[in-house]
Amino acid sequence: MAWVLKMDEVIESGLAHDFDASLSGIGQELGAGAYSMSDVLALPIFKQEDSSLPPDNETKHPPFQYVMCTATSPAVKLNDETLTYLNQGQSYEIRMLDNRKIGDMPEISGKLVKSIIRVVFHDRRLQYTEHQQLEGWKWNRPGDRLLNLDIPMSVGVIDIKTNPSQLNAVEFLWDPAKRTSAFIQVHCISTEFTPRKHGGEKGVPFRIQVDTFKQTENGEYTDHLHSASCQIKVFKPKGADRKQKTDREKMEKRTAHEKEKYQPSYDTTILTECSPWPDTPTAFVNNSPTPTPTFTSAQHSTYSVPDSNSSSPNHQGDGTSQGSGDQLHPSATIQETQQWLLKHRFSTYTRLFSNFSGADLLKLTREDLVQICGPADGIRLYNALKSRSVRPRLTIYVCQEPLRSIQLERQHDATNGDNSNGAIYVYHAIYLEEMAASEVTRKLALVFNIPLHQIIQVYRQGPTGIHILVSDQMVQNFQDESCFLVTTIKAENGEGFHIILK
């Protein structure tokens, strides 16, 4: 008769010790080269399952398990992810366990698999700026790595590789049929990535992630099999032990009712299944930086000013418009979002936002964008997304004076008493972001479709009809919302125009 025991029933019946002892005996019979089954079954990975359910409805069985041999914090609420404290530079064992059922994945039986262990940021904002954060850490700690493998203590790992451009990752090959333990050392501490304010700031959480791949037909280990990760915080030496003790003492002071809201502290940390890290495992072979999410920090300062061919924050000259076409819509596809970024001079971040649709990008807050792109470009991108433009320093209205022949015709009609063709003057608004004569010239060229290089000079008609050269000082003394009639006079040599403001 086959007996199925649930772990909680075993514990409640007081049979846990005998049950574990019997499993240990079975494990010993499997041979010294493998872990005993108690190494797996003693861990908090089992969920209560209804034995009446058919096998097809069972939860998907992961092919591997990764177990970090250090205790979880007791100060974690029931529905939250476990948190484990580590000491900087201390070696911690991660057991690589073959969790396949009989007949599962026969293609890897007797073959090696490759695993990549990484320490990455838990916080999404820091994930976006990972490259910048790690470059800053590298600058302060030249020659150091965030993650190392303690090779003398590790068991069953072969062909160990590290990439100088990936200080937070290490890879190796291992045989699932043999005992394998990777001892890792994390050299960065959580407070190194916390903005310093008044002292005593909380450190940021990290993640330990393991991605495992099998060999493809071409001999490369690029076929993903399994990924799992756990949340950690790293303290200075012995700091993790003090933090664990503090959490335990706090829990002991809580009432029994309050304790029910928290998880117990487990002796080991199970890495839970997750999505594979968005990085190709061939990065180590090619010695190329991680394509995602490795982002380049813009080194130049930029400001939220309209493009050079724009005549105003919200309008362009006749025939073109900066209206809805320049605004990113939530319905924009990934390709349209990339084109929008390129058009608005955010080409540095097209790779970063390579999987973002318009809706994804518009959901980011100002703080998110500052974290991702830095203060200068982050604010500029936020303003562009929200269609925020620089308020013009001066607004003037211009109208092109009717041609001389038309004026004479209308004067003749007026003499004959025909006023039906009275002149209608249509003005164009020009918004100046700079109080300079060159800005006036450029905007006039756009409005009246005159090539900028063909405008020889701009004058203002003064008293008694004299022509006064428009200078920066004159523009600075224009009254806001002044109105001008514009006359263009062709140069005597036929090359270029003079413009007169009346």
What would you note in describing this structure?
It is a single chain. This protein has helices at 7-12, 16-29, 38-41, 124-128, 130-140, 239-253, 256-259, 283-286, 334-343, 358-362, 366-373, 375-385, 404-415, 437-447, 472-476, and strands at residues 64-68, 83-87, 91-98, 113-121, 147-149, 158-163, 166-174, 181-186, 206-215, 221-235, 269-270, 272-273, 394-400, 428-432, 455-461, 467-469, 482-490, 497-501. The chain is an alpha+beta fold. The strands form three sheets. Strands 2, 4, 6, 7, 9, 10 and 12 form a seven-stranded mixed beta sheet that branches. The protein has a six-stranded mixed beta sheet with strand order 14-13-17-18-15-16, with helices on one face. Strands 5-8-3-1-11 form a five-stranded antiparallel beta sheet, with no helix packed on it. A hairpin with a 2-residue loop joins strand 6 (158-163) and strand 7 (166-174). The radius of gyration is 35 Å and the shape is elongated. The chain starts with 6 loop residues before the first helix and ends with a strand. Residues 1-58, 280-324 and 404-409 have low confidence and may be disordered.
